[in-house]
């Protein structure tokens, strides 16, 4: 039941690997503006490496970190020049600093305790160079309410995926149960995963970032604009306060 197992990682690599390319123009412009001398890039929760690939192609020394060995296997193929590390963002220790640190596509929502989110921020700050930039995007409570409710089905040539999700307004936890059927000869192999995310109110997130020593600007994470009222996704661009 662990999230991002072998079968889902293979599907993710084809169906959801668009986020890195979508975010790259905005992120690279932010980096060029705020830390033009940046050379090193750490992508936390790098998944199948769609952003790492672009970081490498654009001359950064890129390191990717993820806890799923299956996601990392695809990242190795997609971004062969990047260094990849299997670790948990709640406890990683790389003993060096990076100019840019990213954590994209609601990966941080997978850390479901407020104290642990603050711990991740403190750890990121320890790994961030003095004038470095930290950027992450998260589902907001509005986003979970809109998009993590009800069921959907996605049919591919060799696989059908069913998602059933629900969110709890009180705990801010959202759950997605995935059931997949992967074609194997004339039959199908069935797999299941559960994804649990937590969203933070804007005030909660601001407080956690400030306590960890970050100043930041918020953007609408879908439109990539400054219009953030009722945004289903927020993108934070942060630096040392
Ligand atoms: C939605 S995917 C995003 C992947 C990638 N950032 C992208 O843009 O395609 C979330 C990723 O976070 C990873 N992840 C979730 N919780 C994690 C944790 N505590 N430590 C390290 N990786 C984690 C998962 O294995 C998965 O690859």
Structural write-up:
- It is a single chain.
- The chain has 241 residues and is of the alpha/beta class.
- It has 2 domains: 6-140 and 199-240, Rossmann fold, CATH 3.40.50; 142-198, Single Sheet (N-terminal domain of TfIIb), CATH 2.20.25.110.
- Helix content is 31%, strand content 37%.
- The protein is built from 7 helices and 11 strands.
- The strands form 2 sheets. A 7-stranded mixed beta sheet has the order 3-2-1-4-5-11-10, sandwiched between helices. Strands 6-7-8-9 form a 4-stranded antiparallel beta sheet, with helices on one face.
- It is globular.
- The model has no long low-confidence stretch (mean pLDDT 97).
What key attributes describe this structure?
single chain; 241 residues; alpha/beta; Rossmann fold; N-terminal domain of TfIIb; 2 domains; seven-stranded mixed beta sheet; four-stranded antiparallel beta sheet; binds S-adenosylmethionine
**Low-confidence sequence ranges:** none
Helix content: 25-40%
Termini separation comes to 40 Å
Number of helices: 7
What's the CATH class of the largest domain, please? Answer: Alpha Beta
Order of helices and strands: HHEHEHEEHEHEEEEHEE
CATH topology-level name of the largest domain: Rossmann fold
CATH architecture of the largest domain: 3-Layer(aba) Sandwich
Mean pLDDT, rounded to whole units? 97
- Main β-sheet description: 7 strands, mixed
What overall geometry do the principal axes of the alpha carbons give?
A: globular
**Ligand inventory:** S-adenosylmethionine
Strand order of the largest sheet: 3-2-1-4-5-11-10
Taking all Cα atoms into account, the compactness measure Rg is 18 Å
